[in-house]
Every structure is written in structure tokens, then in C-alpha cells.
Write a structure and sequence with these properties.
heterotrimer; A alpha+beta (about 325); B alpha+beta (about 200); C alpha/beta (about 120); A: alpha+beta; Beta-Lactamase; 2 domains; 11 helices; about 45% helix; B: about 200 residues; alpha+beta; Chemotaxis protein chec
């Protein structure tokens, strides 16, 4: 067996790009993988400058990299995670992956001529890692999606209680530390049980969703609506005093009371009772605000519902 | 169970080989980076896998530490991992010496690039003196600003009990840039390096 | 008549390497010192022809030896053999009267060249 012939055949046919450049970055070798993915033939690129063949390649960086291999006589690397590709080429998965260009892991190796210790050529091996890239991207998307799901209330799509409380804890300590204003609105749908009894649970669900949507549209950036439980919701209002919170709450209360919700052939109207609590330097936990906003909310209920009450110490 | 110890001669031999490799590396790096690189006298010890995370935490657990790992393997069963640790660095300076365009902002890539250069230049020098040829894995960022080192250390588990650990510190003068390199040659590979050292000692 | 040569390095391996790299046709009498203090003691007691000197050493380092030698005029021919090749260091060493600077690792070819250059061989 002619080992050298087998070796050169393998390098020619291997499922990775192999190219070799001299000290002036002129191509001296270009294997079949490179030919078919770059749509260039070896005969037309040999002897030409690497940067003329790949004008999109990051020239300064790549030159410096190749120079390091020559000068230091050490290998160098490039990873798709930091630089998706160096040589802009198509990849072999146009159908099942979404990226347009081949993601690449690249190894640069010094090549010394027989009997010498200083390299006079650099070999560049290009591995197609489009698959890895694709699945990593998918994984990233999935994780983002999962994170979103884990903090969202399934029915109303607003923050769930766990996430809402987590955020409240952070906002509370920030406000206390920097002596910033912070207010809390708690609201509860009036006679919600009646809606369920009269029109069915699906109608009840619709009312919850409509209420959440309406409120969400009235909030400013930075405010956070969460479903506290059942038909009770909370809104965290950073940098807002009781007065500001009351104005917003009043707008929400009025608009909701005017909202006509369509369920099958029924037109449903509903109201809410609202309680407000502004943060006080004597409070030690965010739960202190929840308790007080709830007290104000019950006062709204006691005094005839469909109204806003500010907690007074 | 660990009966591996370095004899005084072996330690002296390794220390000298490393000193020489450091000199060669700083010479080459000076030419490539066009700035002088100071390599500080190494510290050599055998370290138990159980105490390694703790030792790392003591030295590097403060905020903002980045760690880049690169594996190496050669003939005669010589292998190990090189860890480059950056306490703080002048990202702009590194970007400039490595030929990054001003809008190339991947600090992670800059760290892997410079780490690979420092690691492979030094190790190639060492390999040459022990008449060995090393190959390297691609460098990887193990921890950075986003993923603290402590977090990572807690998840480490080792399949070796003892490693030969060599600490070298690098200082790139003109770019107020410095880092520590920790070479770890684990388990069986220690015996292999001892054999190599003994052969060198026999020659003299 | 053989030339008294002193090899000063804290590493046993390095001392042996220098000795082994001396040209075989060079008629010498080799002595060793493992730090600067030992080296100076020997240099003050006996006539040393050629000193091979490392720089980084405990007790008194290579620079310390060169300074003392510069002041006391003990050895005429000093060749520094060091892994530390900073340009400032090379200049400093030359100022203190070292003949040549050899970057480690030493080998016979490098040594022979320098010895011939200064007519020591």
C-alpha cells in the first residue's frame, strides 16, 4: 500500500475543509470539501491570495492569526461560539437547519518543511459545525421559552404569583435602600362567583383575561401586573406615590366598569374593588405592603364595591 | 494511596526546564506582540484533587475573574490542562495587539486568542526540551463575568487524586495586562513526566 | 596548562548542562557553585579563568556577582547563561563587564562559537 497516496486521497476527500497557505497568504492547497462549499475550483484559487478568494473574511484578525502560527510555531484556533464563520460558505444542511452559512471550528497548524524547525506554511482545517450551532440555537430558544413559561400565568398571560413576588422583593429592597417611592395596587373582581354561577366558568375565565388585558394596556413601562390568586391581581408601581397610584387605579376601575365583554350571546359587565398601599420606611418586607393594600381593598368592598381606597396608617 | 513524590533532582530538573521554556516563550512573544512579556519564576507542587477547588477559590474567588482552559497531549503519555486566569485585563489593549477591528467586541474571543498564544508558546518550548511534540485542544472559556468561577468550582469532579501543578504568572508590560497560568498534569501523566525527567537526568 | 572554569547556577541540571556543553578539546578544570555567595567565595580564594554565570539565583544573584566582580576585578572572562533574556537585563549585564550572553538552553555549538570569538579556544 502506498501510504502517501492514501493520505493525500483522504485529505482530498475528508469531510472537512483543508487549505494551505504560504507566508504571503497565497493558497497552495485547497481540498475538495473547500471546492464544493465555496463553489471555487482548486485550479482557479491556487497561487491566489487568501483574502482575494474570501473577501468577506475578517482580514486584519485573520492575518494576525496566521502570522502568530508562523512566528510562534504554534497552532491557533477559532470557534463558532465566538465567530460563527471565517470563510463564508454554504453548508450541507440547507433543508433541516435554519442558518444560511456554515458554522465553523477552525484549526491553524504550522507546517515545517522536512528537516527545518521554522514553519514555511500554515495548514487550515475547517470543520463544519452547523449542526452543533443549530441545536445550540434551538436549545437557547427553548430555554428562553421555558423561562417565560415558568413565570407566566397560563390563563391571563400576566406574571404568575411566584415571579411577581420575586420581582416585588427586589423592587421593595431597591426602594428602601435608595429611599425611592413605591406603591402597590391590589384589585379583586366584584361578585366573581356570581359571574361563574350565571354564565359558567368559561365566562369567568374570559372576564379574568379581559381584565388583565385592559390593565396591561394602561400600565407604564416598569410597572408589573401579576395574578395574585383566583380573581385577585397586584400591580407593582416603582417610583410612584399613593397619589399617582390612586389616579392610575381610578382610571383602571372606571374603564373596566364600562367594558362590555361578549360571551356567546351574553354581554357581561363587571367591576373591581381596589386597595392601594404606598411604601413606608418602617416596612421591613414587601408582604407588609400586600397586607395593607388588602385591608384597603376590603374596605372598598365593605363600602359598596367598585371603588378605590388608599391605606391610611 | 498516593505514593507519587518528586525527588529533589526531579524537581530541580523540571524547574530548570520550565525556566528555560519561559525564557524562550517571552522571547518569541516579545517579537510577535512587540512588547515585553515578563514570566515569573514558577511554583511547582503536587496537589490533591480534594483541595484544588478550595485553593482556587482562595486565590481567585473575587469578582470578575475569567478562566480559559486548554488541553494538551503529547507522546509518552504526557498530557494535562492549562488554565489561564485573568483577574482583570485591559480588553482594549489585547484587542489592539491581536488585530481586532474596533467594532469586534467579543471579549471572550480575545481572551481565548491570547490564552492560546501564551499557553502554546510556552508549552511548545517545554516540549522541545523534553524532545516531545504536543497537540492542543481549542481553548474554552470556563468562567467569565457572567458565570462566576465559584459557581463552576462547585461542579468540578476529578477522575484523578493527585496532579502536578505549576503556577506561572505573565505580565505584558506595555498593555497593563497580566494573568496567571496554572498547568495541571494529572494522575498517571505525573509518572510519565517523571520518567522523562529521569531520562534527562541520566544524560548528565 | 588547564584553565580553571567556574560554573555558577542554582540548578544542578543547568550546571551539568553547561559542563557537558564545553568543547571536548578545551582543557579545563571545572568547579561548581550553586549560588552567588559560593561563587564569590571561590573567586576570591582562587584564580578563575572563565566564569559561567546564571542570573536568577538565591542568596546573591548573578547581577550581585557581576557587581562584586566589577569592583574587585576577580575574573576577566564572564559569560552569562540565562533563561531571562529581557533586553534591559542584557544591557545591564554588558555594562557590568560580562563578555557574552547565552540564552538557555546551552549547547556546544553556541558555546564554541563564543569561546572562539574571544580567543579562549
Amino acid at each position: 500500500m502506498d501510504v502517501a497516496a492514501v493520505q493525500s486521497l483522504l485529505i482530498e476527500r475528508i469531510n472537512s475543509g483543508v487549505l494551505v497557505v504560504d507566508e504571503e497568504c497565497r493558497l497552495v492547497y485547497f481540498n475538495r470539501f473547500m471546492e464544493s462549499h465555496s463553489l471555487l475550483s482548486a485550479s482557479e484559487v491556487i497561487g491566489k491570495n487568501l483574502f482575494d478568494i474570501f473577501p468577506d473574511a475578517p482580514k486584519r484578525w485573520l492575518q494576525r492569526k496566521i502570522q502568530s502560527v508562523f512566528m510562534l510555531n504554534t497552532p491557533a484556533f477559532s470557534s463558532w461560539e465566538q465567530r460563527q464563520f471565517v470563510f463564508k460558505m454554504r453548508h450541507a444542511r440547507p433543508v433541516t437547519t435554519s442558518s444560511e452559512y456554515m458554522a465553523q471550528n477552525i484549526t491553524f497548524i504550522p507546517i515545517c518543511d522536512k528537516g527545518t524547525t521554522e514553519p514555511d506554511k500554515v495548514g487550515i482545517i475547517v470543520d463544519d459545525v452547523t449542526d452543533v450551532f443549530f441545536y445550540q440555537e434551538k436549545l437557547k430558544d427553548t430555554l428562553t421559552e421555558l423561562e417565560h413559561v415558568s413565570r407566566t400565568d397560563g390563563l391571563t398571560k400576566v406574571s404568575n404569583r411566584r415571579y411577581w413576588e420575586e420581582r416585588f422583593r427586589v423592587e421593595f429592597s431597591t426602594a428602601q435602600r435608595h429611599d425611592h417611592a413605591l406603591s402597590l395596587i391590589m384589585f379583586d373582581l366584584d361578585k366573581f362567583k356570581l359571574i361563574n354561577d350565571q354564565y359558567g366558568h368559561q365566562a369567568g375565565d374570559l372576564v379574568l383575561v379581559e381584565a388583565a388585558n385592559l390593565v396591561e394596556n394602561l400600565l407604564r413601562k416598569g410597572d408589573l401586573l401579576g395574578r395574585y390568586g383566583g380573581e385577585e391581581f397586584g400591580i407593582i408601581l416603582p417610583n410612584t406615590n399613593a397619589q399617582g397610584a390612586a389616579e392610575l387605579a381610578e382610571r383602571i376601575r372606571r374603564q373596566f366598569s364600562l367594558l362590555k365583554m361578549q360571551y356567546e350571546k351574553h354581554t357581561i359587565s363587571a367591576t373591581m374593588s381596589v386597595g392601594i398601599c404606598e411604601c413606608d420606611s418602617r416596612f421591613t418586607r414587601f408582604e407588609d405592603m400586600v397586607t395593607r393594600a388588602d385591608l384597603a381593598l376590603y374596605q372598598s368592598k365593605r363600602e359598596g364595591r367598585n371603588q378605590v381606597t388608599i391605606y391610611q396608617a | 494511596m498516593n505514593e507519587i513524590t518528586l525527588t529533589e533532582e526531579q524537581r530541580d530538573c523540571l524547574q530548570e526546564l520550565i525556566n528555560v521554556a519561559m525564557g524562550q516563550a517571552s522571547d518569541k512573544l516579545a517579537r510577535y506582540l512587540q512588547t515585553f512579556v515578563h514570566l515569573q519564576v514558577p511554583y511547582i507542587e503536587l496537589i490533591d484533587s480534594e483541595v484544588l477547588p478550595e485553593r482556587f477559590a482562595e486565590t481567585y474567588a473575587q469578582e470578575g475573574v475569567s478562566l480559559v482552559s486548554q488541553g494538551f497531549y503529547g507522546e509518552k503519555g504526557i498530557l494535562g490542562e492549562s488554565l489561564l486566569i485573568y483577574k482583570s485585563h485591559d480588553a482594549h489593549g489585547i484587542a489592539e495587539i491581536l488585530g481586532y477591528e474596533p467594532d469586534d467586541v467579543s471579549e471572550v474571543e480575545q481572551l481565548t486568542d491570547i490564552s492560546s498564544i501564551l499557553t502554546t508558546t510556552f508549552l511548545n518550548g517545554l516540549a522541545e526540551q523534553i524532545d516531545n511534540q504536543l497537540a492542543y485542544s481549542a481553548p474554552r472559556v470556563v468562567s467569565s463575568m457572567e458565570t462566576p468561577l465559584e459557581h463552576h468550582l462547585q461542579q468540578l469532579s476529578f477522575n484523578w487524586d493527585l496532579a502536578l501543578k505549576v503556577d506561572i504568572s505573565y505580565q505584558v508590560v506595555d498593555f497593563s495586562f497580566n494573568c496567571d497560568m496554572v498547568l495541571l498534569i494529572p494522575g498517571e501523566a505525573i509518572k510519565n513526566i517523571q520518567k522523562v525527567l529521569d531520562q534527562i537526568l541520566d544524560e548528565f | 596548562m588547564n584553565i580553571p572554569v567556574l560554573i555558577c547556577d542554582d540548578s544542578t541540571l543547568a550546571r551539568k548542562q553547561v559542563k557537558k556543553s564545553l568543547p571536548s578539546n578545551w582543557d579545563v578544570e571545572v568547579q561548581f557553585a550553586s549560588n552567588g555567595r559560593e561563587a564569590l567565595n571561590i573567586m576570591r580564594e582562587q584564580q578563575i579563568g572563565v566564569l559561567f554565570l546564571d542570573l536568577t539565583m538565591p542568596e546573591i544573584d548573578g547581577i550581585g556577582v557581576l557587581e562584586a566582580n566589577h569592583a574587585e576585578k576577580l575574573v576577566d572572562f564572564t559569560i552569562v547563561v540565562s533563561a531571562d533574556i529581557q533586553p534591559e537585563m542584557q544591557n545591564r549585564v554588558a555594562e557590568l563587564g560580562a563578555l557574552a550572553f547565552i540564552q538557555k538552553p546551552v549547547n556546544t555549538t553556541k558555546l564554541t562559537e563564543i569561546l572562539q570569538q574571544y580567543g579562549l579556544l
